[in-house]
Design brief:
Blueprint lengths: L1 H19 L11 H9 L16 H6 L3 E2 L7 E4 L12 E11 L4 E9 L19 E8 L5 E5 L1
Length: 152
């Protein structure tokens, strides 16, 4: 009887301690912003700031990034509706290469990005991975209206 009482006390103590232990945090759903945040280790926007991709330039500047032209390694921000980006959130991508064609006077910008589906917000059920959440796309651009580029 003494052993059972001691055993129940130990089990009770374990249950109390484990109930006080913080629960694991669920992985952030895969969005274009989540992908760039994970790639660069960027913080969330301040609580009074928009979390939309189109507005993320402020967060980048606050974290030591500077506005640049299109170049490999830069973050490309698409304004709302620009080049098919979502009309309410915009889009973000990581530039893998950028080149200018003097004949056509056009930039070819190759990017890696998550959840691109012209005009639709897509969010996965877990963190971004290479099984379809992240893809590579080339954009042909003559004018940068509605586009921003940032690099540290």
């Amino acid at each position: 009887m003494k052993i059972n009482k001691a055993l129940f006390m130990i089990i009770g103590l374990v249950l109390v301690v484990t109930s006080l232990w913080p629960a694991p945090v669920a992985a952030e759903s895969c969005t274009c912003v989540a992908y760039i945040r994970a790639k660069y280790g960027l913080p969330y926007p301040a609580s009074n700031e928009s979390t939309a991709a189109a507005d993320y330039g402020r967060v980048l500047i606050r974290n030591g990034y500077q506005a640049v032209g299109p170049k490999a390694g830069a973050i490309m921000i698409f304004g709302r509706g620009v080049l098919g980006a979502n009309r309410s959130q915009g889009h973000m991508a990581y530039i893998t290469s950028a080149s200018y064609n003097t004949q056509t006077m056009e930039w070819t910008i190759q990017v890696n990005h998550a959840k691109w589906d012209t005009g639709t917000i897509l969010a996965g059920s877990g963190p971004c991975n290479s099984t379809g959440d992240v893809r590579s796309t080339a954009f042909k651009v003559k004018y940068f209206t509605g586009l921003e580029f940032y690099k540290r």
